[in-house]
Amino acid sequence: MRLSTLFTKTLKEAPKDELSVNARLLMQAGFIDKLTAGVYTFLPLGLRVLKKIENIIREEMNKVGGQEILMPALTPKSIWETTGRWAAFDALFRLAGTDNKEYALGATHEEVVVPLAQKYVFSYKDLPLYIYQIQDKFRNEKRAKSGILRGREFIMKDLYSFHTDEADLDEYYKAMQKVYFKIFERCGLLDKTYLTFASGGSFSKYSHEFQTITPAGEDEIYICESCQIAVNKEIVGDLENKCPNCGNKNLKADKAIEVGNIFKLITKFSDPFGFSYVDEGGNKKPVIMGCFGLGLSRVLGTVAEVRHDDRGLVWPKEIAPFTVHLVTINSPDIEANNKIKLASEKIYRELQTGGIEVLFDDREGETSTGEKFADADLIGCPLRLVVSERTLEQDSVEVKNREEENKELVKISRVTHNI
Amino acid sequence: MRLSTLFTKTLKEAPKDELSVNARLLMQAGFIDKLTAGVYTFLPLGLRVLKKIENIIREEMNKVGGQEILMPALTPKSIWETTGRWAAFDALFRLAGTDNKEYALGATHEEVVVPLAQKYVFSYKDLPLYIYQIQDKFRNEKRAKSGILRGREFIMKDLYSFHTDEADLDEYYKAMQKVYFKIFERCGLLDKTYLTFASGGSFSKYSHEFQTITPAGEDEIYICESCQIAVNKEIVGDLENKCPNCGNKNLKADKAIEVGNIFKLITKFSDPFGFSYVDEGGNKKPVIMGCFGLGLSRVLGTVAEVRHDDRGLVWPKEIAPFTVHLVTINSPDIEANNKIKLASEKIYRELQTGGIEVLFDDREGETSTGEKFADADLIGCPLRLVVSERTLEQDSVEVKNREEENKELVKISRVTHNI
């Protein structure tokens, strides 16, 4: 994509009315725009990152047998009454229709997916079953001050698993922990993300969160460095400040943000809906459930929080809006400038033909080289390529990794192969 | 995909509480599920079709310079007050937050996109600009009885164009008409879809709808068969029952559903937001706007309405959930059955390797051949392939087009090439 055609522009300064680092950076670099507190628009650059996260999650969910559906956000009061959450769920947005009915905006979808699965699951032969969606969620938050880490509207993957018994759920639950770490690895969050024991509610002892260390986190976790797991502050007292795995008492406290959360629901939602199946012996049994949440917009915001420096964003390759940021340095000499432009266009075409995603800063006129470099750092693509009179003297482009300071000249003929 | 693993099942009979043909068929075949009146879940088969329509629209929008973003559904009252639509827009869902603010669920996004574009457009150099999204919309409909043709929640592509003057808008408006017909062609609706003159409101004489002929349509249009255009009933009187193009008085009335709608907004939304640009002479001028809507879920429902027979759905190739429905006919003889299974598995793998999307009815046991054929017809993939003892005697599979009655035997070695 040519930067000259991209309608968004970077801002000289971060917006002053925004407190969170993620939203300040993402707004300044032109990835998101704030409509109102806790509600954001994804601009072209941000949407590219979001789609990449979405594709990674979809790939990994499909690998473990997930079947993708799309449930609505507008949900009738009756299903929430069945589980008692119409009254009990504080963060539910409630609204009235001109049809004299009341609705809630889906903050989570157990109340929708259970009656749905119930239409198709009758026997043990129909289990296990894994259904997921990637969809817009709404939460009526009192305060929204963490940018896209906690929005009133946000995008989430929610998978619901259905099993014949708890042993089968346990196995899937463990497999999904690995899948989650695979996703966080691909999104560049692996080294700061801990499997964290959290409260389980009345149906199971613990739930598990995936917590990423960042000063912007709203949670506090206690890390066992030998086991590489953590405990959420809310239950660390119950565990006598010990690692639930090895009993280690030297837990290290840190601030973290919950990027994923998995629950053993057991029969919490099967019971109120009377969701049962017939086992091999002909006996009616309740369906056992798990649920596996992962916030896409929150992952995006978390990457912005943990991967930036004072010049801007630093995207991991697999979710970067573009792999290459190609910068043309114009020359005041018309002939030299034409040569630079021709060479840049050729490199742009060749990279694209080679399947490499390129953001091409082809701006001329008032934009200085310093501004171009500052924008490249702010937007944060993994590789910056520079074409100038000086690099062309050696039939080369200058290549710089966003995470390193050194630059190297690479022959134009080799550039597509070397990236 | 293997039918044995797909969690949805076809229903023996269409749901009795559903009036519309599209929802009855799509529910019976397992494409959608009804949560409540006007609110549906897209099941795996339905989501596949929806994603294909989405990709077609995205491709065509990108070709005409559209830049994709994603705006939120939750929108603050203030922006709707700026245009006067908080009070005037009947179908707006209004709700309150615990933050003591009022919100509307986006039924359309002029109020969001104008202040957004305003942040980036200052001069004639920033125009024209085309921004679009593919996103969930909400309308507080009094009645919802047309299945996914008119939902309370639905998926829409909305593109907003910004121009320096009306001549530039006119040019783009004409180009977009062609693009829309290209989209309807790819979705299999071209031959029944008419560009239809409709009321324009206070800012332009006409708007234009794309109306597809179907008895399920809620609109009545008057078709000029020589010009292949139509007039919506709401303005046919103002036009003295004549074709606005050639003056033909023999217009043919028919029922139709609006699958797309394009408007010249001119300054209807630029004015209230004070959205202006500076022209080449340094003069401040209002930005001229167009808007271009297209309902994805409505296109899907319309295809179901106009492309079905008494056996089920008949998908056009480009948006079919799968190109091939592969049916194995089991044999009571164990040895023969093993041979059939092996051959079917091989064909399934080869078709997939060849990039052909296959729904593989690998069900054994209680499912009869008649049930398998009935499901293939109901689901409506373009090609049905049958592997049986009889076809294998000739090293062949039987190929049948969903739209034709004749069947032919194709050598297994040629099947991937011949599809």
TrEMBL record, chains A, B:
<protein>
    <recommendedName>
        <fullName>Proline--tRNA ligase</fullName>
        <ecNumber>6.1.1.15</ecNumber>
    </recommendedName>
</protein>
<dbReference type="InterPro" id="IPR044140">
    <property type="entry name" value="ProRS_anticodon_short"/>
</dbReference>
<dbReference type="InterPro" id="IPR004154">
    <property type="entry name" value="Anticodon-bd"/>
</dbReference>
<dbReference type="Pfam" id="PF00587">
    <property type="entry name" value="tRNA-synt_2b"/>
</dbReference>
<dbReference type="GO" id="GO:0005524">
    <property type="term" value="F:ATP binding"/>
</dbReference>
<keyword id="KW-0648">Protein biosynthesis</keyword>
<dbReference type="InterPro" id="IPR002314">
    <property type="entry name" value="aa-tRNA-synt_IIb"/>
</dbReference>
<dbReference type="GO" id="GO:0005829">
    <property type="term" value="C:cytosol"/>
</dbReference>
<keyword id="KW-0067">ATP-binding</keyword>
<dbReference type="InterPro" id="IPR045864">
    <property type="entry name" value="aa-tRNA-synth_II/BPL/LPL"/>
</dbReference>
<keyword id="KW-0436">Ligase</keyword>
<dbReference type="InterPro" id="IPR002316">
    <property type="entry name" value="Pro-tRNA-ligase_IIa"/>
</dbReference>
<dbReference type="InterPro" id="IPR006195">
    <property type="entry name" value="aa-tRNA-synth_II"/>
</dbReference>
<keyword id="KW-0030">Aminoacyl-tRNA synthetase</keyword>
<feature type="domain" description="Aminoacyl-transfer RNA synthetases class-II family profile">
    <location>
        <begin position="17"/>
        <end position="316"/>
    </location>
</feature>
<dbReference type="GO" id="GO:0004827">
    <property type="term" value="F:proline-tRNA ligase activity"/>
</dbReference>
<dbReference type="InterPro" id="IPR036621">
    <property type="entry name" value="Anticodon-bd_dom_sf"/>
</dbReference>
<dbReference type="Pfam" id="PF03129">
    <property type="entry name" value="HGTP_anticodon"/>
</dbReference>
<dbReference type="GO" id="GO:0006433">
    <property type="term" value="P:prolyl-tRNA aminoacylation"/>
</dbReference>
<keyword id="KW-0547">Nucleotide-binding</keyword>
<dbReference type="InterPro" id="IPR050062">
    <property type="entry name" value="Pro-tRNA_synthetase"/>
</dbReference>
